[in-house]
Amino acid sequence: MGYGGMVWGLVLWCVLASWNGVAMEDERLLGLGHDYGEALGKAILFFEGQRSGKLPSSQRVKWRGDSALSDGMPENVKLIGGYYDAGDNVKFGWPMAFSVSLLSWAAVEYRREISSVKQLTYLLQAIRWGANFILRAHTSSTTLYTQVGDGNNDHQCWERPEDMDTPRTLYKINSTSPGTEAAAEAAAALSAASIAFKGVDSNYSATLLKRSKLLFEFADKYRGSYQASCPFYCSYSGYQDELLWAAAWLYKASGETRYLNYVSSNQGWSQAVTEFSWDNKFVGAQTLLAKEFFDGTKDLGKFKTDADSFVCALMPGSSSVQIRTTPGGLLYTRDGNNLQYVTTSSMVLLIYSKTLAAAQIGGVQCGSAHFPTSQIRAFAKSQVDYILGNNPKKMSYMLGYGSKYPMQLHHRGASIPSIHALPDKVGCNQGYSSWYSSTEPNPNTHVGAIVGGPNSDDQFSDVRSDYSHSEPTTYANAAFVGSVAALVHKTRAELPRADGADE
To answer: Which pTM value belongs to this model?
Structure first.
C-alpha cells in the first residue's frame, strides 16, 4: 500500500472507530449494552451460594462448604438442604417456597431463552435443590415443617453457616396448628416445578405434582393464618391469595377442572393490588388466570380486570398510579429491601405484556391513559436496566456484574473468609467484632446477589450494617431471573423503544 493509501486507510479507520464509539455509547444509553445472558447466569449462580446442607461436587461457589448437616435431628426428621433465606442462616420455608415458585415460573415461561444461553440446567438444579427440601419438610399429609433455626438467636450472631452453633429450632404446621399460607405456597412451588421438569424427569415431575395436590388439600381443609415466622415473615394479606395462586398452578400443571372450578367459584377473593411479594400473591394468580381468560375461559374476567389494575397502579402517567418512581426512574414500594418489589413487579409486567401480545390485545386502559403492551414491556425493562447499572449512581446492584457494585454485602458467609481460607472456627461474637464491623470489602464476592437497593432519592450507602439496603434475598433474585430471562437474546428491533412506541 502506498503512502496515500495508508493515509486514507487511517482516516477511514478513525471515522469507523468514531462511528462505532458513538454507536456503542448510544447503545449504552439506550440500555442495549447489557449482557442479559450474563446477568441471568449470575442471578442463578447466587442460589449456589445460599445452599444449606451437603454440597455436591458440581458446586461452583467455592467459598462455601457443607453446613447444617443435623437439621431436623431433634424430631427425627431429615431437614438437610434447602436455602438460607438472605444474609442470615435461617431456613424460612414460606419465602423459600415462593422463591421456588418464581424460579419455576421463569423456567416455564422462558425455557427457550434460558436454554439459548445454556442456563436451563443450572436453573433446574436450583429449583430441584429447593423443591427437594419442601418434599422432605412435608413429612405427612397434614404436617409441613416451615422453619429451621431461631431467627432471634441467629440474628444475634455473625457466623458462617459452616461454623453455625445457634439453635436449629424446628417449626411446623399440622391439622391442629395450621398455616394455610405456607402450605399453599409449598403446593404452588411443587406444581410449578412439576411443569418445569415435565420433559426432563417425568418421574420426579409426577412426584412433585402428587405432593402438591396433598399440600393444597391440607392448606384448604385446615384453614388458619400462618404466623409462626413472625416477626420476620408475618402474613398481612391473609391466605386467600396463596390458595388462588396454588390452585392456578395446579390447574396449569394437571389440567384438572376441579382446580379451575375452585378459582372460578372463589374469584370474589381476588383483589386489585400494588405489589407481588412473599406475602401477597394475588397478582401472580391474576396473571396466570388472565391467560386462561384470554384462552377462552370467560368466567375468569375479574382476574383479568385485577391484573389490568396492577399495571395501572405501577405505570408512570397512569391516572390511578399508586407506586411512584424515584427521580432516577425506579419503582419505590417501601424502604425495606425495595428491589424485591422491583424484581417481582418487573417479572409480572413482562409476563403479562407477553400474554396480552399473544392474545392480540393492544394494551391496558388506565382511565384516560392507554399503555400499549410495548410500553408496559419497556417500563419493566427499564427496571431491570436500572438494577444492572442504568441509574444515577452508575453502579450495578447485582454483585459481580459490571465494574462497580456493592462491596459490603450484608451476608454472614460472604463477609467472613471462607472456611477453606480460614479453617479456624469464627464464633458468634468474633464474627461481629472482626468482620461485621469491618470497613473493608467482603472477602468473598457473592456473585449474582441483588442487594436491597437505593433509597427513594436513588442514593445508596455501601455499608454492611445497613441490612435494609445491603442484604440480598432468595426471592428478589428468583424474580430477577424471571425478569431478565424475558430480555435474553433480544435484538435492537425486538427490544421496546425507550418511549414504549412501536418501531
So the answer is: 0.92
